[in-house]
Amino acid sequence: MKRVLTIAGFDPSGRAGISADLKTFDDLGVEGVAAITALTAQNSTTVAATLPIEPKFVRKEIVTLLAEVGFDAIKIGMLGSSETVTMLARFLKKERIEKVVLDPVLRSTSGTWLIDKNGLEEIKKLLPLVHVVTPNIDEAGALTKKKIQNVTDMEEAAKTIHSLGVKFVLLKGGHLKGAPTDVLFNGKDFTHYSGTRLGGSKARFHGTGCILSAALCANLAKGVSVKKSTENARKYLTKVLKTRK
Q1: Where is average pLDDT lowest: 16-25, 34-43, 154-163, 198-207?
Q2: Burial class of residue 189 in the structure, from the number of CB atoms within 10 Å of its CB (0-12 exposed, 13-18 middle, 19+ buried)
Q3: What is the C-alpha end-to-end distance of the chain, expressed in Å?
Q4: How far is 4 from 18, CA to CA, in rounded Å?
Q5: CA triplet 168, 198, 112: central angle to 5 degrees?
Q6: Which residue, of 184, 187, 242, 244, has the greatest Cβ tally within 10 A?
């Protein structure tokens, strides 16, 4: 069985972060292990507080797991502090793990920042060590310093993010009006993935970015192409959302 590491924060609601990642891995038939970067006090709609874990301890979590099981792929979510991002970049440079998916979590849907003010610039430095990055509209806007209002803007943003060194950019368009469209860019070609917008409360969509990136990472670990992994991950996410209220 393929083994996948998630490096992310703990969400006690169970719908996002480490909890959602491990459930996704299990559903998709890979063995999941986890290194927790931060504790959070939150429910399915609000983040009340966050407590980043010391980067040295996060590194100890990762290397202890690596010594026993090894990783076929790594999914990165909330990192909590710029120091943890820096530590992780050093780790990835040393270990040269190919299949790394980064969900660049900057703030919660409710507006709480989930990384310190220097974290954004450090995340940009992490991109050359990543295989696929999966920003939403707000995260892509922060990375490019441009407002994204339509699919054309998404394509331009994907080009800019790709120029920072990442191999694939999957820009998620669910925050735009109309039918949700995601854009995948490999440096040459664009692939558009369109879907049907689902209704419901904010709680229903809590953790969707975590689930999508974890599902994509699980597929990559099993040897599936990025394009097909994206398609499979979107189908899995839709299946999960249809079970939620």
Answers
A1: 198-207
A2: exposed
A3: 32
A4: 12
A5: 65
A6: 184
The mean pLDDT value for 67-84 works out to 95
CA 106/CA 77 separation, integer angstroms: 9
- The pairing of strands 168-171 and 181-185 is antiparallel
Q: Are 55 and 36 in contact (CB under 8 A)?
A: no
**Which spans in the chain are helix H?**
17-27, 55-68, 82-95, 119-126, 137-144, 151-162, 208-221, 226-243
Q: How confident is the model at residue 177 (pLDDT cuts 50, 70, 90)?
A: confident
CB atoms within 10 A of CB 21: 29
Give the number of residues written for the chain: 245
Domain spans of the chain, in order of start: 3-243
**Residue 153 buriedness (CB in 10 A; 0-12 / 13-18 / 19+):** buried
CA distance 35 to 10: 9
CATH architecture of residue range(s) 3-243: 3-Layer(aba) Sandwich (3.40)
137-144 and 151-162 helices, crossing angle to 10°: 50
Reading the block at residue 213, the tokens are 């990136």
Sheet of 31-42, strand order:
47-52, 31-42, 3-10, 73-76, 100-102, 132-133, 168-171, 181-185, 190-194
Are 2 and 72 in contact by the 8 Å Cβ rule? The answer is yes
Instruction: State residue 161's pLDDT score.
Output: 98
pLDDT-derived band at 154, boundaries 50, 70, 90: very high
Tokens standing for residue 224: 């599936």
pTM for the predicted model, two decimal places: 0.95
